[in-house]
């Protein structure tokens, strides 16, 4: 501690006081609780990418297929919760894909069940929170907005929820395809837990694991061969095992974590990368090489992707691995696991007598 | 901004004409992708690049 303190002091002294850049802000010599946050993503770059992608609404909507699909799958999970939700938060709303999915007629895909009303009828108010205003308000005048009570909220900071919303202010938190850009995932998950009322669910989906592994490997090979070294082009992503642990650590009960792979076929790598750009899902890893990828590498990448992963019909598959998670905030008369050692039936007996 | 074609689309268009050369280069890399070093397939790549520049 003392070492830190002296270093902080020295830095202040060494700073030229005559220059106009001197900041009166103190640097504190202690760490915030929860440990240092390891910065992986450049949130400013991510914000810019989202703003730019939404600058042309027509084009931007063409890149919505993945987000719409995942939002739909997230919302299907709500069919299992027989409850009314007066106030719901959609964290990282993108272009309100969840709101669109909620207003869909007959959300239950099972043809044997009768037609059900849109899920929006279960929701009193949906607060769609997103840091990029251009993306958030892109579809503000489309017809689906009339289908539910939707409030759009521009987040000043992706990673602080308590400031704008306060403790225990939501009956459910939804999140679809945005948590994978969060630097401090443990912190954000525990904030989600705090903004929930007791005994309320968090239903989320994020990209994880082997998402875009084809692009990752072929770009690595192309860069290695053309330039003799590699720079990150695809984000490091959370794995399924990590997510369970993180949710538990954030205080969620009755966890459900599962994985779905969505494989999309593209005509070539340029179409894939252009669509990623339209989604606002470009590279925003800190420490990446700035500027565009060189033409040589792109040309090599196209050839390697095709040789290594290409389909027989000449298309190129791209895998999106979606990690779905459901967790409940503790409270009420929620079912809890029994105490360790309190079991009276031996699983061994059951399995042996079968 | 989007009214004219982006340069990258012209590039993609040009690159798509060289499937034969691309396949040869791709095979050269994929044949042993655990030991890839700089300019391992430089000859194959130059052929591919020549084709796309034409």
Can you characterise this structure?
Chain A: One of its GO terms (cellular component) is mitochondrion. Chain A: Pfam families: Methyltransf_23. Chain A: GO terms for molecular function: methyltransferase activity. Chain A: Keywords: Methyltransferase, Transferase. Chain A: This is S-adenosyl-L-methionine-dependent methyltransferase. The complex is a heterodimer of chains A (about 350) and B (about 55). With about 350 residues, chain A is of the alpha/beta class. Chain A has one domain: Rossmann fold (3-Layer(aba) Sandwich), CATH 3.40.50.150. Chain A contains 13 helices and seven strands. In chain A, strands 3-2-1-4-5-7-6 form a seven-stranded mixed β-sheet, with helices on both faces. In chain A, helix 9 (about 215-225) crosses helix 12. The longest helix of chain A is centred in the middle third of the chain and has 15 residues, at about 215-225. The radius of gyration of chain A is 23 Å and the shape is globular. Chain B is mainly α and about 55 residues long. Chain B has one domain. Chain B has helices at about 5-15, 20-30, 40-54. In chain B, helix 2 (about 20-30) packs antiparallel against helix 3. The longest helix of chain B has 12 residues, at about 20-30. The N and C termini of chain B lie far apart (about 30 Å). Classes of the chains: A alpha/beta (about 350), B mainly alpha (about 55). The interface between A and B is medium-sized, with 25 and 27 residues.
């Amino acid at each position: 501690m003392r070492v830190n303190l002296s270093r902080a002091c020295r830095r202040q002294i060494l700073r030229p006081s005559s220059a106009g850049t001197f900041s009166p802000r103190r640097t504190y010599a202690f760490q915030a609780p929860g440990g240092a946050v390891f910065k992986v993503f450049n949130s400013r770059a991510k914000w810019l990418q989202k703003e730019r992608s939404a600058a042309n609404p027509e084009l931007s909507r063409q890149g919505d297929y993945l987000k719409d699909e995942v939002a739909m799958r997230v919302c299907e999970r709500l069919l299992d919760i027989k409850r009314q939700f007066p106030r719901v938060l959609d964290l990282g709303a993108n272009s309100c894909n969840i709101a669109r999915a909620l207003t869909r007629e007959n959300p239950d895909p099972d043809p044997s069940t009768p037609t059900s009303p849109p899920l929006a009828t279960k929701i009193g108010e949906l607060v769609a929170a997103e840091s990029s205003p251009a993306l958030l308000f892109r579809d503000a005048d489309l017809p689906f907005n009339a289908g539910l009570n939707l409030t759009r909220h521009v987040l000043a900071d992706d990673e602080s929820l308590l400031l704008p919303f306060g403790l225990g202010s939501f009956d459910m938190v939804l999140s679809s395809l945005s948590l994978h850009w969060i630097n401090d995932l443990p912190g954000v998950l525990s904030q989600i837990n705090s903004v929930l009322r007791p005994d309320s669910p968090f239903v989320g989906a994020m990209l994880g694991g082997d998402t875009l592994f084809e692009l990752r490997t072929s770009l690595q090979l192309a860069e290695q061969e053309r330039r003799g070294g590699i720079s990150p082009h695809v984000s490091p992503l959370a794995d399924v095992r990590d997510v369970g642990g993180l949710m538990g650590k954030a205080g969620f009960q009755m966890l459900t974590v599962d994985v779905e792979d969505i494989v999309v076929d593209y005509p070539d790598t340029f179409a894939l990368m252009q669509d990623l750009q339209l989604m606002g899902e470009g590279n925003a890893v800190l420490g990446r090489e700035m500027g565009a990828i060189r033409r040589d590498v792109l040309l090599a990448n196209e050839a390697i992707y095709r040789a290594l992963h290409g389909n027989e019909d000449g298309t190129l598959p791209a895998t999106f691995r979606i990690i779905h998670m459901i967790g409940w905030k503790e409270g009420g008369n929620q079912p809890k696991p029994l105490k360790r050692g309190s079991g009276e039936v031996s699983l061994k007996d059951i399995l042996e007598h079968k | 901004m989007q009214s004219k074609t982006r340069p990258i689309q012209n590039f993609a268009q040009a690159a798509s004409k060289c499937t034969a050369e691309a396949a040869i280069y791709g095979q050269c890399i994929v044949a042993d992708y655990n030991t890839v070093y700089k300019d391992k397939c430089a000859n194959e790549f130059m052929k591919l690049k020549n084709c796309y520049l034409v």
